Amino acid sequence: MKGLYIMTISEEIRRLNLPPILKFADGRDVTAENWPQRRDEILRIFEEHEYGCSPRGPFEVTGELTYKREDDYANKVLTEKYRLTVNDTAENVSFSFPVVFHTPYGGRKKPLFILINFRDQTPDEYMPVEEITDRGAAVAMIYYNDVAEDANDDFKSGVGPLYPRDKYDWSKIGMWAWSMSRTLDFALSLDRYNERKIACVGHSRLGKTSLWCGAQDERFKYVFVNDSGCSGDAVTRGKTGERIVHITNAFPVWSNDKYKEYRDREDEMPFDQHMLVAAVAPRHVYGGTAVLDTWADPYSQYMSYYLANDVYKLLGMKPADFPDRRPDTGERFMGGDIGFHMRHGAHFFSREDWQCYLNFMEL
Ligand code: GCU
């Protein structure tokens, strides 16, 4: 419905007193020249206060082919399953997990989506393989529980026990994000994907994961964040639906200990999630939301992109044409280097979301 909500988004934002993206913590102004330092500062803030510190490697990643089908999807797609082994040469530990790749045939190097997913199956309702490969893109899927179980297990599963917690207080979101970067290490070693069209993508808790991964790893040129909401792309201050108290009580392992101190004290946070969306700049970032996803709160999600747009303006990139009002159901903002849509319906990773992401990448 149009026009029911009369306050402008900039007025809503002004009332929240958010930490500015375009000021350093010490109050200095951010310019196009010093944006890389500000981006770095933002990433350190999120590492310290929310997602925890992940291992930095260097990593050597190898893949053992465990399954291959050359005539998949009407002979148009090569399907391969690999067991990746990541060797952290700094810490002298190694960890293995499976990844499935679907790569369409054809001459040029293919765009690649790295998807972290909820189920160990392909195709999957969140991974419409044919619709992706018919647009000329490849997709590599990780099943998140293969990396670290989504359970309150004191980080005792998967990659967790390999690293001391006093040095690496990484959350499960940090672990899942790490596996996306390691998958990219391997994918690039295959020398068949287009480095200018590498995307990370995930839905909900895995949308938060995709955002944390893509904000950190600059090799991802497109970062797609589907229905991620609280502790993902939604501004936390003033948020409706899920808040820090809910998410940290139900899912304490998704964040580090520091984050729990902000339960009902959001106003004291030296950050908010709009800064993480901005940290993807100057690469592409895109938020998919759904009008009925009130737990995630699409309007607070929109605020993040609306604010991050200022960085795209500052850097002389193509900003989005975001209106200074709440988005309407069905609206899509696709024309810039940053994008957003609010589709009909509820919390889900739909075909419609995928079509928007493929369109945004101009595939
Ligand atoms: C829960 C959680 C959300 C999360 C969602 C999901 O609803 O509260 O933060 O995004 O699960 O991952 O599906």
Question: How would you describe what is shown here?
Answer:
The protein is α/β, with parallel strands linked by helices. It is 30% helix and 23% strand. It has 11 helices and 10 strands. A hairpin with a 4-residue loop joins strand 2 and strand 3. The longest helix is centred in the middle third of the chain and has 18 residues. The chain starts with 8 loop residues before the first helix and ends with a helix. Bound molecules: alpha-D-glucopyranuronic acid.
What are the main properties of this structure?
single chain, 363 residues
Proportion of residues in extended strands: 15-25%
Give the radius of gyration: 20 Å
Give the strand tally: 10
Helix fraction by DSSP (H/I, runs of at least 4): 25-40%
Hetero groups in this structure are:
alpha-D-glucopyranuronic acid
Span between N and C termini? 31 Å
Number of helices: 11
Gross geometry: globular
Q: Name the strands of the widest sheet in spatial order.
A: 1-2-3-5-4-6-7-8-10-9
**Structure classification:** alpha/beta
Low-confidence stretches: none
Order of helices and strands: HHEHEEEHEHEHEHHHEHEEH
**Nearest-integer average pLDDT:** 97
Largest sheet: 10 strands, mixed
Q: Classify the oligomer.
A: single chain
